[in-house]
Amino acid sequence: MISMMAAAGLALSTIVIPPVADPPPPGQITIDVVTVIGSGCRAGTAAVAVSPDNKAFTVTYSDYLAQVGPESRPTDFRKNCQLNLKVNVPGGFTYGIAQADYRGFAHLEKGAKGTQKASYYFQGMSDNDQRSKTWSGALSDSWQVTHKTDIASIVYHPCGAKRNFNINTELRVDKGTSDPKKTSFMAMDSTDGSIETVYHFNWKKCPK
């Protein structure tokens, strides 16, 4: 019969300690917007800013709306945005994205559906982190989606490499069985510009 002390020692030996993120690098991180392409982020309608503590950066949209209805164009049911960003990181550090928070507003008539899709990856690497969520009408409310990545599964920018960070997002509205005389829409923006997408960094020191 195994003693209680031995059993406790056996239990402790099976505990897996998850990796711990390093603190952010000193100084202020900057991000250069290399290219902005898409019907949801026309020129001048998307802005990027880094938080003062270097723990996250935000993307603010001012004209990102997909809709169907009487006054909509045939292409309005889907809007997308592709951002190519150069994150200027101090030597000796690398980063990955631990969490992304997406917010907006939706008005979906009964029978309509709205979908938000997102993915992000480093240039030259596979786009292997694609997420999506669908809402069904009737709905008229703010929406929010949080994509979390386990710290052990975070993909980091290769140390010493020069690869930009790509973000692909999409909003789609399907009228379904809703009244064709009524409009349904999904937006990833707001009238006061307060709604923004937040990407949370996870920092790690490069091996010497």
Structural features:
1 helix; 208 residues; mainly beta; elongated; seven-stranded antiparallel beta sheet; Jelly Rolls; disordered N terminus; DUF4360 domain-containing protein; single chain; signal; DUF4360
Report on the architecture of this protein:
The model is unreliable at 1-19 and 190-194 (pLDDT under 50). It contains one helix and twelve strands, in the order αββββββββββββ. The protein has one helix at residues 4-13; strands spanning 30-37, 46-50, 56-61, 65-68, 78-88, 93-108, 113-122, 130-136, 139-148, 165-174, 184-187, 196-205. It has one domain (4-205): Jelly Rolls. It has 208 residues and is mainly beta. The protein is 5% helix and 49% strand. The strands form two sheets. Strands 2, 3, 4, 6, 9, 11 and 12 form a seven-stranded antiparallel beta sheet that branches. It has a five-stranded antiparallel beta sheet with strand order 1-5-10-7-8, with no helix packed on it.
Write the layout of secondary structure elements.
Layout: H1 4-13, E1 30-37, E2 46-50, E3 56-61, E4 65-68, E5 78-88, E6 93-108, E7 113-122, E8 130-136, E9 139-148, E10 165-174, E11 184-187, E12 196-205
Antiparallel strand pairs: 1-5, 2-3, 3-12, 4-11, 5-10, 6-9, 6-11, 6-12, 7-8, 7-10
Would you identify the CATH architecture?
Answer: Sandwich
Number of domains: 1
Evaluate the radius of gyration.
21 Å
Uncertain segments: 1-19, 190-194
* Mean pLDDT figure: 85
Distance between the termini: 49 Å
Q: What is the count of helical runs?
A: 1
CATH class: Mainly Beta
Gross morphology is elongated
CATH fold category name: Jelly Rolls
Main beta-sheet annotation: 7 strands, antiparallel
How much strand? over 45%
Helix content: under 10%
H and E order: HEEEEEEEEEEEE
Structural class, by secondary structure, is mainly beta
Total DSSP E strands: 12
